[in-house]
Amino acid sequence: MVVGNFQAWQKVLSDAKRLESASLTSLFAEDEFRAEKMTKLVGDGKTEILVDYSKQVIDQEALQNLLALATEARVLERFGEMCDGKPVNSTENQPALHTALRADSKTSIQVDGKNVVAQVHDELAKVKKFVDAIRGQKRFKYLVNIGIGGSDLGPRLIHDVLSSVGTTDFRCFFVANIDSSEINAVLAQCTPEETLFVVCSKSFGTAETLANAQVAKKWLARGMNLDLASQELAEHFVVVTANPAKAKDSGVVAANTFEIWPWVGGRYSIASAMSLLPMIAFGFAAFEEFLSGMRGIDEQMRSTKPEENTVLILGLIDALNFGAARYPSLAVLPYVSALRLLPNYLQQLVMESNGKSVRLDGSEVSVKTSPVVWGGVGTNSQHAFMQMLHQGTQVAAVDFIGFARVPNADAEMHDQLTANMLAQASVLAFGRALQGSRNDALSNHRKMAGNRPSTVLMAVELGPRALGAIVAIYEHRVFVHGVVAQINSFDQWGVELGKVLAGEISAQVGGHESSFSTSHDSSTRGLMSWYRSSRKPNK
Ligand code: F6P
Predict the structure, then answer these.
(1) Looking at 239, 257, 282, which one is the last position of a domain?
(2) Catalytic site includes residue 123
(3) Is residue 4 situated within a structural domain?
(4) Do residues 350 and 474 lie in contact, with contact meaning Cβ atoms separated by under 8 Å?
(5) Per the domain annotation, does 93 fall within a domain?
(6) 85-143: per-residue pLDDT in tens?
(7) At 1, is the pLDDT very low, low, confident or very high (cuts 50, 70, 90)?
(8) Local confidence band at 513 (pLDDT 50, 70, 90 cut-offs)
(9) Pocket of ligand 1 contains residue 267 by CB under 6 Å
(10) Are 430 and 463 part of one and the same domain?
């Protein structure tokens, strides 16, 4: 196998091979302090995440070789360069400054002669003013977020967590898909006069969002008996975008528009005004808590030397687990319902960032990149897919996420929830010795081989700060794996072609064109034909 330019990959790849015969039971038996050595607290003094990576199938030799890889790849230096605004997103010649969104206001980061942190804080001040005004007015009862991908998953995730720890007077909805049953079901629950639409789109070129915004506008005009050109409609729209002009051209006229910037990737925009809906629903202070949780991780990532840098080490373990093709997937199992969307959120963050196969220099990548990210909330997952995780032929690396305190939870039931999480991690790691010498016909069926890796992340209290810290940990894990694999984690060329083709096919299946373009493959043409003959005719 041609290995990447980093020589240190040679040892990392041979570690992956060597560790195939390792056993967690033996690794723990060989070092009684293993768990203690591999359990660390990350974050600032106010928010800490306990990280136990001792049940990953690694040893000190592998860790040292991973740290050597990080040194050769200048991971922490590259992290500093990213935070300082260097154009790390080289194919789009853009910085990736999501860390600036939560930087302390005294920080100065220059991009094109402007201090972007000042821009961020100016915008946050405008957002806060708007949020406080909307919350004070009591004019709106329904908040509807219209956006998709990073313009949807981030605000939804924050909304879910804040809903579980607090209350709101607003009824909140999220619309993303171009499946109009989604927006129709939402609008059926709202009254036009009391509805505020938050239209989130960095590009304002996303078909789903544009279509849904038009449906919303027509619904509002009908419901308020207004002309579509009526300025009164604008008061029911607020736009969050990096392209205000395109928003206006699209016919979405909003009384308020808040800015994000080209140097914030969609999947990294949760810390921006894209999270406006949960800010309105729960107050700006909760969002500031979220930002503070992220900032603590950013600062620690940047200031901690490699061998003590737990977030760096988690990213390097990802590089070993997924870059060296030990496991095909990462299962994220939050043991709290409020984080049920975290696996979805991380699917975009990880797979859209690192689902690449070309290096920064245009050459073919030489190690594996993004894992398949999936998962589900515990304990539901124990009644769905844990069987495969325990006894299947495909071993997944698992991240368990739990909390010591969850407001509004029954203490005893929360104990049971957490006990289940700890039990699952233990059984995955150590399996279950066969009961005694029972050698009955079932013994093989009951065998639990164990040796299945997991990391357990736990916070004291579920809330915006812990969520911010957890999201930042994953953002930086993605960064680490991307750097050592030498890919650009910040572009997404792979999603462009599908959008173009969908536009062509949509025009044709809709019957707006007399015949199907022969440029389509025969399978697609056949399916288009069947669909067009089966769909109900345009009204
Ligand atoms: O999936 C492609 C993508 O561009 C994502 O990166 C982004 O989060 C989503 O579509 C929505 O894009 P926009 O915010 O520009 O509407």
Answers:
(1) 282
(2) no
(3) no
(4) yes
(5) no
(6) 999 999 999 999 999 999 999 999 999 999 999 999 999 999 999 999 999 998 999 99
(7) very low
(8) low
(9) yes
(10) yes
Q: Which of 264, 282, 300 is the last residue of a domain?
A: 282
User: 53 with 158, same domain?
Assistant: no
Nearest protein CA to atom 2 of ligand 1, as residue: 495
Query: DSSP E strands: which ranges in 187-328?
Result: 195-200, 237-241, 256-259
Beta bridge partner(s), residue 329 = 372, 396
Do 376 and 475 sit in the same domain of this protein? yes
**What is the Cα–Cα distance from 341 to 344, expressed in whole angstroms?**
5
The DSSP secondary-structure symbol of 92 reads G
Burial call 341-373: b when 16+ CB within 10 Å, e when fewer: bbbbbbbbbbbbbbbbeebbeeeebbbbbbbeb
Alpha-carbon gap, residue 491 to 347, rounded angstroms: 15
pLDDT in tens, 340-350: 999 999 999 99
Alpha carbon of residue 320 to chain centroid:
21
Domain membership flag for residue 363? yes
Q: Which of 495, 499, 500 most suits a substitution to test ligand 1, by most atoms within 8 Å of the C-beta?
A: 495
Domain check: are 112 and 251 in the same one? Answer: yes
Task: Assess whether the C-beta atom of 272 lies below 6 angstroms from ligand 1.
Answer: no
What total number of domains does the chain contain?
A: 3
Same domain (yes/no): 141, 192: yes
The DSSP symbol for 4 reads P
CATH code for the domain in which residue 193 is found: 3.40.50.10490
Q: Does the C-beta of 151 come closer than 6 Å to ligand 1?
A: yes
Q: Return the half-sphere exposure (C-beta side, CA atoms, 13 A cut-off) of residue 278.
A: 29
Could you tell me the residue range of the domain that residue 134 belongs to? 98-282
pTM value is 0.96
Q: How far is CA 507 from CA 67, 503, 515, 532, in A?
A: 53, 6, 10, 11
Report which ligand 1 atom has the smallest distance to the Cα of 269.
8
CA dist 482 and 4 (Å) reads 12
* Start-end of H helices in 103-198: 116-137, 153-165, 180-187
Residue 89 lies in a domain: no
Give yes or no for residue 149 CB within 6 A of ligand 1: yes
- State yes or no: is 236 an active-site residue: no
pLDDT given at position 438: 58
Q: Is 296 helix (H, G, I), strand (E, B) or coil?
A: helix
